[in-house]
Amino acid sequence: MQAAAKNPGDTITWATTTSPRPNPLFSLQLFGWQHKWADVAASITLLLILVASRWAAFPASIWEQDEAYFGCGVVKFDATANHPHPPWFPLWMAAGKAVSPFVDQPTRGLQVVSAFASVCIVFPLLSLWCIWLRRELALAATLLYLFNPAAWVLGGRAFSEPLATLLMIVALAYWFDRVPSGSRNMAGSVAAGFCLLTRAHFIIPLAPVVLYQTLRSTPWRERLATVAPLLVLVTAGYGAVAIHAGGAGPLLAALSMHGGYHFGELARADLAFGLSGIARAFLVPAAALAWILVATFGVAVSWAQRRRCPGLCSLFLLAVVPFCFLVYGLSWAGNVRYVLPLVALGWGFAVVGVARLIGRWSLPLAALSLIGLVLPIVPELGAYRATASPPVRALEYCLAEARRRGAVIVTDRSLASFFEYERQWHGIPVTVLHDSQIGVDTPPPPQWLTVAIFDGAHGRFVGRAGSTTTFTCEQRWLRRLSQGRFLDITVTTDAEVYNVTSKR
Fold first, then answer.
1. 215 and 336 in contact (C-beta within 8 Å)?
2. DSSP summary character for residue 133
3. How far apart are CA 242 and CA 255, in angstroms?
4. Tell me, what DSSP letter sits at residue 443?
């Protein structure tokens, strides 16, 4: 590999040099400089910058219904009541419970864990790319991911993706090492097991990698080290969930119900590229398209150099391609957070493509790209940190109005998780009904005793109203990085409500 990189007639100028690869778990020599203490000082400075960036982008509240369900699970884990929804995220819930005594609310603990994970990923991601790339290019690929708008802004949300992505990258960094060993295989297996306990969806990209690592490990002990820890952790974790739920039957029933809803919604999804998660992750479709084209060229380069850089093309085929299937075949493609692992892995191939195209100018271009990614987001971070999301502000206002009036709250079904989280956490002293219950389970409450709340265009169950207040996210790019919902929440008082079906 080193000889190939030094051959002046070879085009593999982006490949790794003799610089030692940093430890996937922790290393304060991220830059690979010969002067150790200068490297340590620069690495600490970089970590402080990353911590400051995550603090600057730490949201004031939750924004999405899944965050509310995760908060319910931290308060009281109940696998059969969508607290949280399948596949129940046992390690994610355990992390939230462990941190919650030190923060002011359950979801805040999950946010802290996510922000911590989004900083720590610098170690395994750099280590992974250093298997094949020169240190400076590997660091560029790592930083371009860390300051990608989606990874930066969503890094402090109460979602499982940041922690699951960190654990998956740790596993890949150990498993794709040039020479397998029992200790590396075991470390990767433990990380993969924890990853699946955090987010079971990642079995799609991890399963081919496990098979690959098992087949290329010759001694049976190395093969056992690849599989056994993962299986033990997953069996123990989800076994504990089954015991807590009262057996496998209730879990399968909850999974079947959730799966039916998920794939039913998925069948109705039809998104243009500009509304896809990958386009939103880069803010504008043109930037995402340029990134895809350059990364695709990087994949072609890695294929052409597959003998000199073994494993890089395998990473694409075994991890990136299955992830594309997971995101675009089994998930709603417009969700930005789902594409975080794709962005993390794709930046390495994009850097390879750029380095092959423009050589020594690739680092200046990477610096300019980094600035271009950061500048649009910075002006909106102040409001993101200081102001609660529209659903949280609307819910607080709605509850205050209902208490003051002694009124009943009628909410559209999509906001139910926010009310459920509030009920679990603080309790709700007023009656809350869902729009689907009106005229079915209960008659409509009197207009003068009704406060209605709904998201966007979901207010068809509301007729006449006394007053209307709308809570909106006014930041353009924050709206772009959302799922396109819970951004404009309306609260009406003295509201006439009815069952939409019967009205028709």
1. no
2. B
3. 12
4. P
As given in the structure block, the two tokens for residue 342 are: 């794709």
Report DSSP letters for 454-497, one per residue: EETT--TTB---SEEEEEE---HHHHHTS-S-SSEEEEEES--B
Q: Are 199 and 164 within 8 A, CB to CB? A: yes
pLDDT tens for residues 153-177?
A: 999 999 999 999 999 999 999 999 8
Please confirm whether the linkage preceding 86 is cis (ω < 30° from 0).
Answer: no
Which stretch of DSSP H or E encloses residue 159? none
Nearest to 350 by CA among 395, 396, 309, 293: 293
The two structure tokens encoding residue 400: 């205050």
In tens, the pLDDT along 278-316 reads 999 999 999 999 999 999 999 999 999 998 889 999 999
- What's the token pair of residue 114? 């996510």
> What is this structure's pTM?
0.94
CA–CA separation, 238 vs 229, rounded Å? 14
Amino acid at 334: G
Rg (CA), the chain: 24
Rounded to whole angstroms, the Cα distance separating 278 from 213 reads 29
